[in-house]
Write the structure tokens for this entry.
Amino acid sequence: MKNIKILIDEQTINQRLDELAEEIMKDYPKKDIVFLCILKGSVVFTVELAKRIKNNIQFEFIEVSSYEKNQSTGKIKLNKDISQSIQGKDVIIIEDIVDSGRTITFLKEYILQKNPNSLKICSLLDKPSKRIFEIKADYIGFTIEDKFVVGYGLDDEQNLRNLNYIGYIEE
Ligand code: IMP
Ligand code: MG
């Protein structure tokens, strides 16, 4: 069993999610919003954030992969596409973490081709020290240092996604 240390506890995450929800409600007064959840890492964040928002929210899911055994392969593969048209809709991409920025850069361009009315990015975590692609999320939960984190949707080789906090593995 790996030794996991808490980086951000549940209470701190809950408080920040309340704030993010307020920000989004202010920016999209009474509008319908599409939450575009990036599988699988963003599932927990998507649900927990959506529950705090009073606007009508539609869910869409897309799955891409860029990592194998925690190493970036440098390529993005589209595993599952969205199932409804998002043309003319106000879309927020919900991401778990922006690391090199490769995934979100690819997805932003890809989704813009589908002609939404507007497109923003909301990421639970931001790891700016690892950035290769110049991109920043419009909404960021927490900015973290260069640690490999797990929990709250984030995985270590598909494990530990269900932790109710964000942790890191102590070597
Ligand atoms: P990027 O394309 O390099 O920005 O990587 C984004 C993706 O890599 C995220 O959606 C995660 O799935 C994964 N990733 C990056 N850093 C971590 C981490 O610290 N823990 C778990 N997954 C990570
Ligand atoms: Mg991911």
